[in-house]
Amino acid sequence: MKSSRHFSSPFRLVLFDYRESGKTSPFALRLVPALVGIIWVLFSFNVAAKKLYQYQDERGIWHYTDKAPDTELPVTIRQLKVEQRQKVWLIQGGDKRHPTYAIRNDYGGPVQVEVDFVEQENALANPALPHRFIVPPGLSKTLLEISEAQPQAGFRFTVNYRYAIGPPLTDYLPKHAYLPPFAAGESFQITQGFEGEFSHTDPENRYAVDIAMPVGTPIHAARSGVVMDVERDFFEGGVKPAYGQKANRIRILHDDGSMAVYAHLELEKTQVYPGLRVEAGQLIAYSGNTGFTTGPHLHFAVQINSDMALTSVPFVFLSASGVPKNPVAGIWLRGVTATQGGAVGADSMK
């Protein structure tokens, strides 16, 4: 089975326009729509599960609620389409003459955020822009201050920001072998490997693999790390282009800054949450058929943040003998335990 190219770099562009003309003009904050083509992708957002519960009580009155009702009456449950929500925010503070900015990061690990001027009239930034910040999870301290270059002259400026998930890595060399991402003793076939012509042609997916398996197959962490992000509430799948951004997935940050992506997971069957530390071989989810897909399978890739762009990197799987195995299309992988395959995380790339 094959999947679409749906792991483009997360990019956020929001423009804030501050205008002040002397003391008599009001200070305005305007949110300007981004006028560039941006593909919003899997790992740029989080979503909240939504169900509609419908039942009729003894008096014939119909009830509708988004929470499971406490009743023994027959209840009809309808899965609703979820809304995507933003995960990295530029938060404005300060006052109209000295606006400040912090950054809120809702991922379970660090993001790299670049802030720059789009317009700048008598505006001075500290630190100077453009500037890149590494932001841990949560709300940061004040990171940026804007002031008038010439006092009392008024100022006008517009800033934008973009971000990439994960810490920036330069000169990254893959050194780690990975457990096949399913239970020990199970065997599944790779149906699309590195540089697969169907969908593994862009930098984010060039070194990805698709592993055919039935819906509901237990998915295990291929390597230890911290959960960065989870999508669990998409329920549709197929070959329509609209499904390209509707695959459930988990992203796990490893100790060396690389990240594993597990995609097309089953609805509401993820077993982890952002910020949780997981160990190699731990159950994290169940496979599905969500998103752009020709059939049930797991999409697995290892990515890094390379100069503000998510880029896939080559990797190998461990075998029962501990010998690294290249993930070539057509081969069958057999699940192993961390003990069988040797110490996952050791320098095992050959």
From TrEMBL:
Residues 206-306 form the M23ase beta-sheet core domain. It comes from the Bacteria. The chain crosses the membrane at residues 27-49. InterPro entries: Cell_wall_metabolism_enzyme, Dup_hybrid_motif, M23ase_b-sheet_dom. GO terms for molecular function: metalloendopeptidase activity. Gene3D superfamilies: Glucose Permease (Domain IIA) (2.70.70.10). It holds the Pfam family Peptidase_M23. SUPFAM superfamilies: Duplicated hybrid motif. Keywords: Membrane, Transmembrane, Transmembrane helix. The keyword Repressor does not apply. This is Peptidase M23. It comes from Methylotuvimicrobium alcaliphilum (strain DSM 19304 / NCIMB 14124 / VKM B-2133 / 20Z).
